[in-house]
Fold each of these.
Amino acid sequence: MNPFENILSAVRQKRPLVHFITNYVTVNDCANMTLALGGSPIMADDLCEVEQIVGHCSALVLNIGTLSERTVQSMLAAGKEANRLGRPVVFDPVGVGASRFRNETAAMLLREVRFDVIKGNISEIAYLAEGIGTTKGVDANLDALSTEGNLRWHTDLARKVSTQTGAAIVISGPIDIVADSHEAWAIRNGHPMMANITGTGCMSAGVIGCCVGADPQALLPSCVCAMSAMGICGELAYEKLLSVDGGSGTYRVLLMDAMSKLDGATLTRRSKAERLRI
Amino acid sequence: MNPFENILSAVRQKRPLVHFITNYVTVNDCANMTLALGGSPIMADDLCEVEQIVGHCSALVLNIGTLSERTVQSMLAAGKEANRLGRPVVFDPVGVGASRFRNETAAMLLREVRFDVIKGNISEIAYLAEGIGTTKGVDANLDALSTEGNLRWHTDLARKVSTQTGAAIVISGPIDIVADSHEAWAIRNGHPMMANITGTGCMSAGVIGCCVGADPQALLPSCVCAMSAMGICGELAYEKLLSVDGGSGTYRVLLMDAMSKLDGATLTRRSKAERLRI
Amino acid sequence: MNPFENILSAVRQKRPLVHFITNYVTVNDCANMTLALGGSPIMADDLCEVEQIVGHCSALVLNIGTLSERTVQSMLAAGKEANRLGRPVVFDPVGVGASRFRNETAAMLLREVRFDVIKGNISEIAYLAEGIGTTKGVDANLDALSTEGNLRWHTDLARKVSTQTGAAIVISGPIDIVADSHEAWAIRNGHPMMANITGTGCMSAGVIGCCVGADPQALLPSCVCAMSAMGICGELAYEKLLSVDGGSGTYRVLLMDAMSKLDGATLTRRSKAERLRI
């Protein structure tokens, strides 16, 4: 069996419980996508309970969209406890670069918590890499999205951030990049329609959380599997969308459908994940 | 007319305004399900206004998913005010057993507020019953879900909690149980697919809120009606899902559709609510 | 090209970034509707960052559903900063009249922030106008919704509030009214089914935010365009709903679909916006 099929099977057999401290915009989508993949979500963000909750979980996902002073403390406490317990932690630095508050929170979390995976668009990852750069809201700077032309540069960036942080780095874009200091992958799945609905990035982080929760030893393959799965679902949803003449509302529904029906054979057959020479 | 048809009619004629203090994961689903049934939702959670808001309402629903220190105080104030005004209060102790914070909040609310209905899965109700037990996240311990084999035990548990609290008790599961100290019902409606989307439990509490808001004198029939309605909608949605070859995203949409189109005749014809000998 | 087509084109070319401080019930719908129209949403509500975030944005939308003491301060700071920068600010006084907290917050914001657009149902706008009146939850007092019979009275009210506040006033209802002190419009688009799902009002405010963000000089035409577009999408969604035999869940999806597929020609052809003699 293909390694991605193994990871998908592991999620569906183990049903990893994934703890999210995340924004209130896409939180429902994250919960439903986690269930669609085969995991089990729990959202809890109060300092009074996050350490206990993470103790029940197989992975922790921290997402700084709609950050507040209250949840910064919860993220810190949950992250430290997950580290102590050896549970994988996924960081989604949504909109870092857009405000000092997000920048300082991201910097503090990077200092205090050991992340296993950091996922962002190119401007977010570039911001973390350079301590510079700007982010227009939570969307990527469209000029700089990862494509064939800048794949080498973005991959090098991902490797640099991985070396700095010890985390596997995921850069989402037309081509998704997954890299650590030793190894890099390009995933050419997905569809531009995914940018027309909110939350595909947040959902991707949840899918990564499920995969690394099911098999924490296989960080890089889990990330490649997760991004392939999301991208393939984006393609399948678009194919179905054409047949029903729908728009962005239907697309969002079909994306969830695709994940809940994704099987290992389809994942293997359609995956356009390629290991890069570095 | 069947008593359940009467309750459904009452909701649609009176359009009860239902006040929710609930989690931000499924809050949109709760609002839309309330509207689909025929009620009118209002979500308000700040201590500055919850007492006034509950004063406009026919029922109050308290749900402790994504609880925070801030909303604990709001739940307490709203619950006490609803008691003072004689408005029915529904309690959904989401994830109780998973953290001291949830446990202590549930215990405090049970001490300070008189609940008319308490709805949970078996592990949540068992926790309340015993002051012991564990909850894996917000999902039920799958081994213990209410089925034919443990129906007697779970019904006795519900009756015990009802005696302790004075509330009608609803245990959701493959078989839903509704009981007070005098009377018990088993509802064999529903579909396993309901567990594949987030929020069916929260939505059920909202449906209960609408039914008891429309007819506060008929607590037990209202709960039986609400759980039957939800279960039947879960079945109808699954039947339609098969015809469109959809997944969990479509299922969620069809569940809402089913409630918005549910009529009294279908409710009566399909209800598998059975009064148990106790 | 019709002026409404120009505004729709402007949104799709400029992709205005719209900052929302809004309730957690319909926030996902607001984000997806903004994307469906062609804008780009950013939700941020912490006092630590709202001023910086609004600095990146073309418009600000303040919505007081699920208001908290924390977000009141954020709304004030963001509103003042938007004023300072000359960015249009849209105010959606959800549920004003239902609690002192909402009333005092609305009054304070009206005192401290210069709004470019205020959008509400008739009871909300009447409350602002009179400092009296009552609001049943977040839904309009059904007896008083704007129809042919009270169109003159409601238009006069809108003009009065516009004179008091300097803002363009939008009253949503079976007939939508858009007015300032010089000019008034009636928009006879929309469908009653829009009231059966939560968030159509909040989404309308987001659509207004996109339109005024794309062309801040054309406030009144932008509001008329936005309300026409929402109403037309409500009609298109209902027409499609009939063909698929769906309910309120499907309707919500189709509403989003319709906006994502709306073209200028359809907007012009179907718009029932009429300038009123005043």
Amino acid sequence: MNRIKAKYLIETPFPLDQAAEVLAGEQSSGTFVPVPGETASLKERFAAQVTSIEALDTVTTPSLPGAASNGESYRRALIEVSWSVENVGFNLSTLVSTLQGNLYELPQFTGLKLMDIDFPEDFGSHYKGPAFGIKGCRELTGVGKGRPLIGTIIKPSIGLAPEQTAETVARLAAAGIDFVKDDELMASPANSPFEKRVEAVMKVIHAHADKTGKMIMYAFNISDEWEAMQRNYDKILEFGGNTAMISINSVGLAATKALCDRRQLVIHAHRNGWGMLNRHPLLGMDFRAYQKLWRLAGVDQIHVNGIRNKFWESDDSVVASIGACFEPVLGGFEALPVISSGQWGGQAFETFRRTRSTDFLYLAGGGIMAHPMGPEGGVVALKQSWEAAVNGLSIEEAASSYAEFGQSVKKFAKIHHGS
Amino acid sequence: MNRIKAKYLIETPFPLDQAAEVLAGEQSSGTFVPVPGETASLKERFAAQVTSIEALDTVTTPSLPGAASNGESYRRALIEVSWSVENVGFNLSTLVSTLQGNLYELPQFTGLKLMDIDFPEDFGSHYKGPAFGIKGCRELTGVGKGRPLIGTIIKPSIGLAPEQTAETVARLAAAGIDFVKDDELMASPANSPFEKRVEAVMKVIHAHADKTGKMIMYAFNISDEWEAMQRNYDKILEFGGNTAMISINSVGLAATKALCDRRQLVIHAHRNGWGMLNRHPLLGMDFRAYQKLWRLAGVDQIHVNGIRNKFWESDDSVVASIGACFEPVLGGFEALPVISSGQWGGQAFETFRRTRSTDFLYLAGGGIMAHPMGPEGGVVALKQSWEAAVNGLSIEEAASSYAEFGQSVKKFAKIHHGS
């Protein structure tokens, strides 16, 4: 069927079928009294349909305030709702308003989270998705199957002048890094105007490529207002770069997709602000739905956090996010999961054990830059950690087999494990 | 001082000053270990500063999961943090990443809400803000001071063909309406392509203007992907319309601001999806901060919900939102608050009593379209309700003085009051 389907986790003081119908009504015909012109045939064509209701547990305390009825119990369920593709057409902004519009405001719900989206088949022929994806990112960096792309974030996040950033990049390139990125706080600050930074950084990247044949991928943070973002995109092209980073939540869907549509640069999607949409278990959206939308829009790389991260998210949740990225959407739309946050290589073992994959961009910030043997040691140690993980070594075995990784364990393991 | 300031409501198991410093660190230098290059002078220039901490209550249950430490108590506080404008420049996307980026992910917090933003003075000379604002909207519709602009939403939300929409508009125009809008679910569905709708609707609007001298404001929902939004904007201009509606959360900041920057059409900002950002008391952002950002971006009209709305929000919260819109930002940036959701005129009395203002776009959907005397009666009744409210009549007095409003009370008051 050519219908858009969405799954929601709901919590409601009302009977489940009644609450589900309110959601479907609000998101397709929605007013508080019937109005002239609302005919049966029109309703049949455009009405949202509740296609399944799977009851879960019942709780006694509402998860969110504002219930229309203060019952003694609040029922939870997974429900599926569908809309004709005719309601929306090829219009991702209106798709979002349809799937996630006023429904969070409904007092019939004390919890509501968009868990999953299924796009209609039509979308597969209309949307092009990631221009590079996993395969393209491997080709651009020359990193074959068998290990992740190893990357880092320029730190301090903000404050370095273009020449300082370029020096750091040169050092990282010499150490064998595959990927470097700006921090999301670093766009075009007073002492590092975007163009100057691109010029300085690309100069050392080209010098390194000329010498070694290896082209580093540098994700310049183009996040800005629309005109500036286009200029920034052009600047990267002009200086021979191949990747742009976008803070997708801050920039928004329409502008991000428009830049993905240019298909000349790899788009590195940074999800900062994501906690606001996801941290509450019964509000917002699940990463499974989120990443589908952005892959459809065309991002090539998307952040998934990491095992034993410095943020609040559990390892199980991170592993589920990675799994979601690896599932084809409409038969394809592959994007490279970006693992980051407090990573230093010690987590490579658990990451590989739970995903059996190396199709990652694996980012370490302090884990590389603050390595006891300098960034050079940090990059080598990360590659060692993944080699060891893939070869089935334990972290202890790897620490004694590899000098650089051994130093990482000494310095970073205690920060994470308190030992 | 030329600094960006932000207020947050926080909840943390850690000492307040320590938690506040983590937030400031993450949002300006942020990594889990010190790195080379992070000098003292660089820190002084670019570091975020915690400028005040006001302790509130302490609770025993964390509001959000994922705390780094499972203490026995969780302290709440209002804190203020500031950044040099040098970090961000004139870059609203990066401003959002700075004020609302990774900080929601921090396990040092079990609650975090952005409550307010103060822009540095520089922003006042760079950003132009709303091109029309309250004054411009009154001028375009010819509605002088003393009553709100009265408007409605075409219902059913989705499904009407362009000719049906145009017929409805003609009828509403004849009844004396000031403003009509598409529903947020209605962009360019299969049976009402955007251009056809603009053409059909503008034809009746021009016919009405030719006859009466009164130009109805119709907010066409241009929300779409970027290229389509620009085309839609141009189509409205081409057919002589004056207003475009944007689902700001779905479209995003960069594209919305780019369209505001064209300054040829009034921009009606629909906040659908807002519940996701605000419904939890300790997650996301307060409307006070939200509306400032969008006014700076240049929206002319912004939704604030309404008294006794059909959504979850309390009247106090709605009144606070209206008050926030009326406060100047950097000395101006006036936008017209849009009151809607379950409105039928009965709420005019309380709205006026609590705000002492008529500077609103007052929207009623079913309240107009389902009036017992038809939309004609609905529009008249709404004007009567505001006249009565401003003149200090009670709702009962108004119901017996005005025939049309009397009918509204009979039909709609019981829906809302269950009497």
